[in-house]
Amino acid sequence: MENLTYKQASRFLDLATMGVRPQDVDDLLSLDSKQAWLEQQLTAPFAVHTDRVAYQKSQRGETESTQEMRVGAWFDIAFWSGAQLRQRMAFALSQIVVVNDRDAQLAPYPEGVANYYDLLTKYAFSDYKTLLYHVTRSPIMGHFLTMVGNLPKSETGVNPDQNYAREVMQLFTIGLEELNLDGTKKLDTDGLPIATYDDTDIENMARVFTGWFMSNGSMLEPMVADDTYHDQNAKTILGQSVPAGLSAEQELDTVLDILVNHPNTAPFISKFLIQRFVTSNPLPEYVQRVANVFIQTRGNLGEVITAILLDPQVDVENSVHRAKLREPILAMTHLCRALDCKPGNNGLITYDALLYRDTFNQYPLGAPSVFNFYSPDHQPPGALAEQGLASPELEIIDWNQVIKMSNLTWKLVQDNGYKTGSNSKQELYPQVSDFTNIAGDYNALVTLICNRFFHGELPTDIAPRLEALWSAKNSNNKPYAVAPMIYLAFVSPNFMVQE
User: Fold this and answer.
1) For the chain, percent of residues with pLDDT exceeding 70
2) How many CB atoms lie within 10 A of CB 251?
3) Mean of the per-residue pLDDT values for the chain?
4) Cα–Cα distance for residue pair 424/343, rounded to 1 Å
5) Average pLDDT for 261-278
6) Which secondary structure element, helix H or strand E, spans residue 236, and what is its range?
7) Measuring CA to CA, which residue among 157, 7, 80, 145 is closest to residue 342?
8) What is the DSSP string of 97-160?
9) pLDDT class for 418, splitting at 50, 70, 90?
């Protein structure tokens, strides 16, 4: 037993879920073990996105699925489904092994894109090699990074397409520059970074990914190999020899071993996941502890995320090495889960979820390129850059985005909250009766707001602002103070910065 406090339990769940529901904290406090909670999450049954897309289509009475239904299905699962750690992990992985529905080849296939997300969900806690194997064989990835139908030079007279070969190294495994185990860069004798691969590696890697084709034209079934069109000559990949005569399947297995076991992959992937879950600027010692787990478990992602979330650094307070800005879309899922938002008129699905294309500058499998929504090393000019600190999320957060999300939030808590609107099943409605029922008692109301947004502690700089909003309403109108108080809590830096 850990004797967890409310604050400790809430902070932990804030990192590990799509947003903390009120009951979630009570359940963890009753369990009183973060380790036990993680073990439950690693084996919990989980929702399937392709099934939910079909449900979205059925509920709308449509005959064809759309990408908007796919994203609506993602929000349905984020808001109301269990297996929260798996969903959170899948979202993080979707920002490493990126595809996007903006691509002209993928846009017509919402079920295929949802199926790709299900692949990330299913293998979220597998070993990393297994995840990469299924990612590589996905027809969605095959089309996105133009590997499907890749032919050897013997067939075309030109070198095979290098797109997937480049990105599987640069973005999915080893990165551009050699790293120490703690994620810091190795330097040569001139003090310069050392490249992890060169053009010859890319050319040889591209030859590996030849001979893979769609299975009966399906965007759902894994690609299949035809060794007639696979380059079976010997290759050298990252200094390691790959013998001649291997089938496409055998060579894929060999090369994935080379990539996953490369000394860069453990710190590269470990640091990225730490940034997505805990902090934008992890200490080198933190990265090294997690990278060691990656190596010892042969890239077992369940063990890796357990190491990330149980690391002593997670409990550190008031440190730039335990802080990150919330991703906009995860800030909103937290709000909707904290307020138990539901569709009006007994609706069962979300429609055009929270105007997602125009609100967040991100949505699931909607990054503008294979390089994700932002760079993990992004340093905004000003105080952060001067201290050498990264804040990846700030690359997609600007005043336009802040205003749009703030306006949406106000509409959610004001028009659809205590002052109920049209009760349309195409709108989300927060359940605010817990707040309005105690609106006459300031201490009780502010305690509830703090529990939902501030881990149970009232920030000193926001306290007078909340009290002023409450005091501005006379005794008969205290319920009308609820919406502006929740709104202020949500848009405050105290909430938007996870620490």
Assistant:
1) 98
2) 25
3) 96
4) 7
5) 98
6) strand 235-237
7) 80
8) S---TTSTTTTT-HHHHHHHHHHHHHTTTSBHHHHHHHHHH-HHHHHHTT-TT---HHHHSSPP
9) very low
